[in-house]
Amino acid sequence: MKIGYARVSTRDQHLALQLDALNQAGGETIFPEKASGATKARPELDRLLASLRPGDPVYSYKLDRLGRSQKPLLDLVPEVEFRGVGRVSLTDAINTTWGPGRLVCNLFASRAEVERELIR
After folding, report:
1. How far is residue 110's CA from residue 68's CA, in Å, rounded to a whole number?
2. Concatenated DSSP letters for 2-45?
3. Is 36 in the active site?
4. Which of the chain's ends, N or C, has fewer CB atoms near its CB within 10 Å?
5. What is the pLDDT of residue 22?
6. What is the pLDDT of residue 59?
7. Could you report the per-residue pLDDT of 90-115, keeping only the tens digit for each?
8. Helix (H, G, I), strand (E, B) or coil at 59
9. pLDDT tens column, 18-52
10. Taking a C-beta distance cutoff of 8 angstroms, is the pair 65, 5 a contact?
11. What is the DSSP letter of 61?
12. Per-residue DSSP letters for 66-101?
């Protein structure tokens, strides 16, 4: 089953673009969230992780929707690999179900952290 995660940082932002893209990608279950990517308190992400079954890929609009700093993004790696799933970022063209995708994911995680520092 394709599982989607959509996140915006503030209540003023809208999830519509992300939700449309996840639906078009065939997302069967989508967890929308309005919370900072730098915080650990993300109930919808927790619900998503609890619902994963082996082979379920996790889709997001962009990699940084899963987290805005390198540590939280990289902390997800063992969490999803333990469950036998990969992550797919629609706009970044990242698919961690194979080796080169995992390498690119690590590079993009670093980029997301730099972007967050610039925003602050």
Report:
1. 9
2. -EEEEEESSTTS--HHHHHHHHHTT-SEEEEEES-TT-S--HHH
3. no
4. C
5. 97
6. 92
7. 987 777 776 777 677 777 777 777 87
8. strand
9. 999 999 999 999 999 998 877 778 899 889 988 98
10. yes
11. S
12. T-SSHHHHHHHHHHHHHTT--EEETTTTEETTSHHH
The pTM score is 0.77
CA distances from residue 32 to 1, 7, 111, 114 in whole angstroms, order as listed: 17, 6, 23, 24
The tokens of 19 are what?
């939700």
> How many residues make up the chain in this entry?
120
Provide the Cα torsion 96, 44, 56, 29; round to 10°. -120
Residue 106 parent element (H or E): helix 99-119
> Using 50, 70 and 90 to split pLDDT, how confident is the model at 82?
low
Q: Is the dihedral of CA 43, 46, 52, 55 positive or negative?
A: positive
Q: Name the helix (H) or strand (E) containing 60.
A: strand 58-60
Domains and CATH numbers, the chain: 3-119 (3.40.50.1390)
